[in-house]
Specification:
heterotrimer; A mainly alpha (230); B mainly alpha (667); C alpha+beta (316); A: 230 residues; mainly alpha; Four Helix Bundle (Hemerythrin (Met), subunit A); 2 domains; two-stranded antiparallel sheet; 6 helices; 69% helix; 2% strand; C: 316 residues; alpha+beta; Helix Hairpins; Immunoglobulin-like; six-stranded mixed β-sheet; five-stranded mixed β-sheet; 36% helix; elongated
Chain lengths: 230, 667, 316
């Protein structure tokens, strides 16, 4: 989707003609394009389009999570005579999982820096560490789930446990899918280098991983902390 | 090995579905064989199935919609005829079938007829109206279409293999839980909608990004056509509402498959929560359907009144207000669940606010007609029919928004008549208006007007003959979904409604004849200039049918009605300067969409029948398809400047001839 | 215009039917009147009790308020469409008129006024006709506990110690206080001529107050689809004079089975088209046990259990 007009630029970087709040500036040679923030600059660049589209997807994913959060809010007291959160949650495991995930977000940020510097080695290393930390998170969480099911506190025991397994499990599923994606990205960067479309995908992965972290923070607070207090 | 699937899944002892299913399979097989024998497969594969061109995808969506509307209409014929015969009698459809039929009717009409119709028209027209070459993510667009097809395929498969849900198109628990619906019916429903829901969500993301980030130079937000604003609103709603549907259906799936207790009667489940969640999606869904319809009418009324749209900014504000307000009214779908007077009152008042903003739009369309020179082509007839019919539907909607009134007619045929009033009067009329309006742009020739008008009148009259009696029986206390009844007062009206179905059937026949006649006479109906209706927006600035790249040179937008300005200038100066042609890059076709959908179908089918190995293989296959697609190195193909120039010069020549011929007429 | 010449087969249908545009108002008004007349007996528009009558009044008030604006709008659509047709040279052509402050004020203001009125009707009506709100009456109300089963209705009279299936006998002129629940799936209790409907759900109790002013038989039904036997799930509400009601209660106490936990579980199995019958004595805690799920919810279809069932059918 190329256009026949030069893309508006400022400070040597392509700017988004549709960003709100921009003042009149941006002059792509000859003063032909005014970038007023009202979207008059013609189609945005591919990077802006891919990033924006992925953000919209992430927002929709957050809506989906919020439905599961809402269900948990309704069902969290319905223990049907079975175990409640306080009896089940393993605080040390949860702390380790949180630490792993937050650390992996940090290493993901390091990977973004390495990508900017176009360093293949550092990119692979930081992505690998991100993946290992994420894997640790998933393994721990799966272990917790297995223990709970073995002890008779599986999702079929009560509505509270159903909604707990669903909301935490949904997050775990997203992390697992992210790990699969991460592995694919590592392979792609290795084989194809820092091509523009690969860079766009890495940008998307970065966003995805950080948003998963944010959702974990919400999960951790609303499900575990609030649940343990109950 | 094959999970729950056995030969008993095929309804050998039930003649109606067996015959219907076999007939469809036979027809499909014949068509496929004919296509293969005629050698059309490479053409279809290259030009349509793997096409990432938004115009092609739009046409395929509309085709899907029309086919599914036919299937849903046949269900409707069966329902009306069963009720005609089943007064103090059993009728010809036992409850197990009748219940599947009304569930399938609703599901198919909403998800696989109305949605694809509107999405198809948006797909076709929005990039053209924005003056750009394609949507933000063309391959994703193709994938969305095929995922929707998989959903439609699964539902239709349930006719022959297994059964469909017997819960209504919204499967309230506990009826839809495993205890009360132990068969595969609800599973067909769930997987069909989970898969096609992903497709719809991807469409939403695609169009929000396109409309907000990809427009012709100079097209600021306030210069976008009204259809693009309503498309934006509808797709924002899709992005925000379809995750709710996916999540809620996923919860029901977990209940049924893994014994979770989200909505069960025991262990603390909460069926009322399902009702709340599903309608939190359900109400935005109907606005997802009707907002593009509003946009189509804005375009059509403006064009055929030969006037610009009245109150553009007001319309934009009203449209975007819909996006917010539609999330505040969901409880009006279950006033009778006993939430209490305060809650019922608040949601009732919120519902009237929606009536307010709809009213604003109706007035704006009304005053677009005022001072116009109205031409009664069939799109305009559909629009006028819409204005009258939708207003009546709105009246009954406002009645239903008043809780005490709703307590009398909830879940009766009055409610059924109301929502058919607004969906048929709004969405279906818009679909046909948009279809007729944009048909020349898609195929290069117009549809035959005579048969189009016949179809319109038969649809309009048939609609009233079916649904006014249903309003009456609703006021006489008749609930919806009755397989048989003994109440004498209802019977004459039910018989009257059956006559209406005959009229609607004739209307459908007229539509089919219209298509055939138009194709046969396409040379006389040819649209040479690309602007058969004297249009005002950018899609009419390019040839008919539009070339793959839409515009040889992206148009620069200077005024509120982009193409009107261009035309005026061209007429005034009596010349159009030849632009500077440059090579154009377009996205390459890709089979990843249809391959992913292929695997998705097997995942869905396997999950329904508990064939776990097939489900896992399907997921692996879909992932492998993604990775294979992600590995490709060449994403675009280039059309050289010379080729673009050659194609465009042909168009310009015809246009200039037309300009000289009609200069006096238009000045 | 060019495209008007593309008419190849102008079927007679189109020509004849096009006359209907002019006839449309002439058709719809008598139809509407006819509809009203036809609906005016035996249904929702023929209320026989105070709740129904009040619901009706609100329905018509709301209709009037909304029609006040929509009626003229529809007429305006037809008039504008006809007057501003291209062939009418007397009509003014305004090719550039796109904004008028006055019209904007009206097009936002008038609907706003309408929703203020309607909002008032809604708020007041929702409170006055809240199903949970008792009917003011000199007569003491009687209590009926309603359990929706698959696919019949169980009416328990806790004050009288009897129960009835598919037949609801109440004294005329006396408010009846319903407490409703469901044995299994959601249903909706509705007597069209007496007024509001209310949902029944397992594990919950909803409340409703109705009153039949005169003696008579009234059609009762469920309006929430609940499965195969849903169409047969109607009952008769018989409003009778007080003394006849006493006699009916006394007669019911003489014969018929007992309603206790075991017989309740038996009756909650799926069955259709059950003829009305009564129970001579009822366990006073039964309703409570149903609501608190000490008695488990009714079972689903039993056919095909023990193997994968593709087409489960309920027992008849």
């Amino acid at each position: 989707m190329s256009t026949t007009e030069a893309l508006p630029q400022a400070y040597g970087r392509v700017i988004d003609p549709y960003s709100l709040g921009r003042d009149r500036r941006g002059d792509a040679g000859g003063g032909r394009i005014y970038v007023t923030g009202r979207g008059e600059g013609g189609p945005a660049s591919r990077r802006v389009i891919v990033g924006f589209g992925f953000w919209i997807f992430l927002l929709s994913d957050i809506v989906m999570f919020s439905v599961f959060f809402a269900a948990h809010a309704v069902l969290q007291t319905e223990t049907a005579g079975g175990p409640s959160g306080r009896e089940l949650f393993n605080p040390s495991h949860i702390a380790i999982e949180t630490a792993c995930l937050l650390a992996s977000s940090f290493t993901c940020g390091m990977a973004a820096v390495a990508i900017e510097a176009r360093s293949q080695a550092w990119t692979q290393v930081s992505l690998l560490i991100t993946g290992l930390l994420g894997l640790a998170f998933v393994v721990l969480e799966a272990g917790d789930f297995a223990t709970m099911i073995r002890e008779g506190a599986g999702p079929d025991r009560s509505a509270f446990l159903s909604s707990f397994f669903a909301v935490v499990g949904l997050h775990g599923l997203h992390v697992s899918a992210g790990l699969l994606w991460l592995g694919t990205m590592m392979a792609q960067v290795f084989v194809k280098g820092f091509r523009p479309d690969i860079l766009h995908r890495l940008l998307c992965f970065n966003l995805f991983w950080h948003v998963l972290d944010i959702i974990w923070v919400a999960l951790f607070t609303l499900v575990y902390l609030v649940g343990a207090l109950r | 090995m094959l999970g729950k699937l056995t030969l008993q899944a095929i309804p050998f002892d039930h003649p109606v579905p067996l015959f219907a299913g076999s007939f469809v399979v036979l027809v499909v097989l014949c068509v496929v064989v004919w296509i293969a024998l005629k050698g059309y497969v490479p053409y279809l594969w290259r030009e349509w199935i793997t096409s990432v061109d938004h115009k092609r995808i739009g046409v395929m969506y509309v085709l899907l919609a029309c086919l599914m509307m036919l299937r849903g209409f046949i269900d409707a014929i069966m329902m009306r005829s069963q009720q005609t015969f089943a007064f103090h009698a059993a009728g010809y459809l036992p409850p197990e079938h009748f219940d599947q039929i009304f569930s399938a009717h609703g599901t198919i009409m909403i998800f696989f007829a109305a949605m694809p119709f509107m999405i198809g028209l948006m797909n076709f027209a929005v990039p053209l109206q924005l003056g750009v070459r394609d949507v933000a993510f063309p391959t994703l667009n193709n994938t969305s279409f095929w995922l929707t097809c998989v959903g439609a395929l699964l539902i239709n498969l349930s006719l022959l293999v297994g059964e469909f849900a017997r819960t209504g198109w919204i499967p309230y628990p506990p009826l839809s839980e495993l205890t009360y619906s132990p068969g595969v019916g609800v599973d067909y429903y769930l997987w069909s909608l989970l898969i096609s829901g992903v497709g719809t969500l991807l469409t939403g993301i695609n169009f929000v990004t396109t409309i907000l980030k990809i427009r012709a130079p100079g097209m600021s937000y306030t210069r976008m056509p009204m259809f693009c604003w309503t498309a934006l609103a509808s797709n924002l709603l899709i992005v925000a509402a379809f995750p709710i549907l996916t999540a809620t259906l996923a919860m029901l799936t977990l209940d049924r498959y893994l014994g979770f207790h989200f909505f069960s009667n025991e262990a603390g489940g909460n069926p009322m929560m399902f009702v709340n969640l599903i309608w939190a999606w359900g109400h935005p869904e109907v606005y997802i359907l009707v907002l593009p319809a509003f946009g189509i009418f804005a375009e059509v009324i403006s064009t055929f009144s030969n006037r610009p749209l009245f109150g553009y900014r007001s319309m934009v504000i009203a449209t975007m207000a819909f996006v917010i307000v539609t999330y505040t009214v969901w409880l009006h779908h279950f006033f009778t669940m006993g939430a209490g007077a305060d809650v019922n009152g608040i949601f009732g008042i919120a519902t009237t606010i929606i009536g307010l903003i709809t009213g604003v739009k109706v007035f704006n369309w009304l005053f677009t007609m005022y001072g116009g020179r109205i031409v009664f082509a069939s799109p305009m007839l559909w629009s006028i029919g819409f204005l009258v019919t939708f207003c009546i539907g709105g009246v009954t909607g406002m009645l239903l928004a008043v809780p005490p009134a709703d307590f009398l007619v909830h879940n009766s045929t009055f409610l059924v008549a109301h929502f058919h009033n607004v969906i048929i009067g709004g969405v279906i009329f818009a679909g046909f208006a948009g279809l007729t309006y944009w048909f020349p742009k898609a195929f290069g020739f117009r549809l035959d007007e005579g048969w189009g008008k016949a179809a319109f009148w038969l649809t309009l009259i048939g609609f009233y003959v079916v649904f006014v009696p249903l309003y009456i029986t609703g006021l006489q206390g008749m609930p919806r979904r009755m397989q048989h009844y003994d109440f004498a007062l209802w019977h004459p009206w039910i018989v009257a409604a059956a006559f209406g179905i005959v009229l609607l059937f004739c209307a459908m026949v007229c539509q089919v004849i219209q298509l055939r006649v138009s194709i046969r006479h396409r040379d006389e109906l040819r649209d040479d200039t690309g602007d058969p209706w004297n249009g005002r927006s950018l899609e009419w600035a390019t040839a008919s049918p539009a070339p793959a790249f839409n515009f040889a040179v992206l148009p620069r937008v200077h005024g509120a009605e982009p193409y009107w300005e261009i035309k005026r200038r061209a007429i005034e100066t009596q010349q159009t300067a030849e632009p500077q042609y440059e090579p154009i890059e377009l996205s390459r076709n890709s089979p990843v969409g249809v391959i992913t959908a292929f695997f998705a179908f097997f995942v869905g089918f396997a999950m329904i029948w508990h064939i776990w190995w097939m489900a896992i293989l399907g997921v692996v296959g879909a992932y492998a398809a993604f990775v294979w697609f992600a590995w490709r190195d060449v994403e675009d193909y280039t059309i050289s400047a010379a080729e673009v120039a050659q194609l465009d010069r042909a168009r310009r020549r015809v246009h200039e001839e037309w300009l000289t011929q009609h200069a006096r007429e238009l000045a | 215009m060019r495209y008007m010449s593309g008419c190849f087969c102008a079927p007679p249908v189109a020509f004849l039917a096009s006359k209907c545009l002019q006839l449309l108002p002439i058709i719809t008004i008598p139809t509407a009147l006819l509809a009203l007349l036809a609906g005016c007996s035996g249904g929702v528009l023929d209320p026989q009790g105070p709740i129904g009558a009040a619901d009706n009044k609100i329905l018509f008030n709301a209709l009037g308020i909304v029609l006040a604006i929509v009626g003229p709008t529809i007429v305006a659509v037809l008039i504008f469409a006809w007057w501003f047709r291209a062939s009418n040279t007397r009509a003014r052509y305004l090719p550039d008129w796109v904004f008028s402050g006055r019209i904007e004020l009206l097009s936002w203001g008038i609907p706003l006024l309408i929703i203020v009125f309607l909002g008032g009707v809604i708020w007041v009506g929702a409170h006055q006709l809240d199903p949970y709100r008792p009917i003011a009456s000199q007569n003491k109300s009687i209590n009926v506990q309603v359990v929706s089963l698959d696919w019949k209705w169980l009416f328990i009279y806790p004050d009288h110690g009897i129960a009835s299936v598919n037949e609801l006998v109440v004294p005329a002129g006396v408010p009846v206080h319903f407490s409703l629940t469901s044995a299994s799936v959601m249903n909706m209790f509705f007597v069209p001529q007496l007024g509001s409907m209310i949902m029944t759900m397992n594990g919950m109790v909803t409340q409703l107050y109705l009153q039949a002013d005169q003696a008579g038989d009234f059609y009762g039904e469920s309006t929430q689809y609940s499965g195969e036997g849903f169409s047969g799930m109607n009952f008769v509400l018989r409003a009778v004079p007080q003394d006849e009601f006493e006699r009916w209660v006394a007669a019911a106490r003489q014969s018929g089975p007992e309603l206790d936990r075991a017989s309740y579980i038996a009756v909650s199995q799926q069955s259709q088209n059950v003829r009305p019958f009564t129970y001579r004595v009822v366990d006073p805690n039964l309703f409570d046990e149903i609501v608190t799920r000490r008695i488990p919810p009714g079972p689903g279809p039993q056919a095909g259990r023990g193997g994968p069932s593709v087409h489960p059918r309920a027992e008849h």
